[in-house]
Design a protein that fits this description.
By secondary structure, the protein is of the alpha/beta class. Helix content is 21%, strand content 28%.
């Protein structure tokens, strides 16, 4: 009996204590106990569930993907934290980098399922185009969306695909309107443009709303006077899954070093659309990626497989930036 007691781990949260089951994460424990906490992917990617350890120590794994400043303040991701010692944890307050309130400025549909949302940019809200933020519905459920706007813009632009039964995308597409107040997180993520090698060729491959971060990165590269060739492949499984095609074509006509390839994985496609998967087309066009910088955004499987293929084609791992869209847990 004593040994059993010694192996039990307790989580202390908001004046309550909860017992962890063997192999259970802190987040799953809180959800099982009916505690209202925010979360998204439950795999450490979106950082929606980020909390702070008040006493005890976060596990090394639970701080994966957090920057040094966050680690120094004992922030951790409860979805990937399976502690062996008791911990007291707390939500992040606004002053600690938690939720911020802002206003919806405008909404419009980019195609039949992708909603463009522009939010007022809160004061002192810093980000790199291509990073993501978490948008929360009125029930406190958050989902990660990439930022397509620019660092100097007064607004934050998100592209939100309407997912069937989506707790956040469904709310955004059916109930959200200009003038509404909403909550967002600070920006996070490491898929963005870094100046310093303006002549390096850039390869961008995205699916669906993976175009959003690539748009942000593209404009940021041009803002920094990037002179190397920039090739952007945007793909969808069906023709009406593409969006902003004419805008991207116009940009390719105007910008000397920018090239745009709209791709659809179907045999029969309209003129000007490539009948191929975006990653297959990109790798068929260039077999040697030595010296290239690569950006991969969108469907998780595409990003994972293409990351390996671009590395094998010669791109350095340090030059491959990725933002896989991990489906949210129920």
């Amino acid at each position: 009996m004593l040994n059993e007691k010694q192996t039990v781990t307790k989580i202390h949260f908001e004046n309550q204590s909860y017992l962890l089951n063997p192999g259970e994460s802190v987040l799953d424990c809180l959800i099982r106990e009916g505690v209202g906490v925010e979360y998204g992917c439950k795999s450490g990617g979106c950082q929606s569930c980020k909390m702070k350890v008040v006493s005890g120590a976060p596990t090394e794994q639970s701080q994966t993907g957090l920057d040094d400043a966050a680690k120094a303040q004992n922030y951790f991701l409860p979805c990937i934290c399976m502690p062996e010692q008791d911990m007291e944890v707390a939500r992040l307050g606004e002053s600690a980098g938690g939720k911020l309130e802002t206003e919806v400025l405008a909404l419009d549909m980019l195609n039949h399922e992708v909603l463009r949302v522009r939010l007022h940019r809160p004061d002192n809200y810093d980000y790199f185009p291509g990073q993501f933020l978490n948008l929360y519905n009125p029930d406190g459920v958050g989902r990660a969306y990439s930022i397509a706007s620019q660092a100097e813009d007064s607004f934050l632009e998100l592209h939100i695909r309407h997912v069937p039964n989506g707790k956040v995308s469904g709310w955004a597409n059916t109930r959200l309107k200009a003038g509404d107040r909403v909550s967002i997180s600070q920006a996070a993520g490491e898929c963005f443009y870094t100046p310093g090698n303006p002549e390096q060729p850039l390869l961008m491959i995205g699916t669906g709303t993976g175009l959003a971060p690539l748009l942000g990165i593209l404009h940021d590269a041009l803002r920094h006077n990037h002179t190397g060739e920039i090739h952007l492949y945007h793909g969808s499984s069906v023709i009406n899954g593409l969006y902003m095609v004419e805008e991207m074509r116009a940009m390719a006509d105007e910008v000397e070093n920018f090239y745009y390839y709209p791709c659809v994985g179907q045999d029969s496609v309209p003129k000007g659309i490539f009948s191929a998967r975006e990653n297959q087309k990109a790798l068929a066009d260039r077999s040697d990626l030595s010296g290239w910088r690569v950006y991969l955004c969108g469907h998780e499987e595409m990003v994972t497989s293409t990351k390996e293929k671009t590395f094998l084609a010669g791109a350095s791992l340090n030059d491959i930036y990725s933002d896989p869209f991990v489906p949210a847990a129920a």
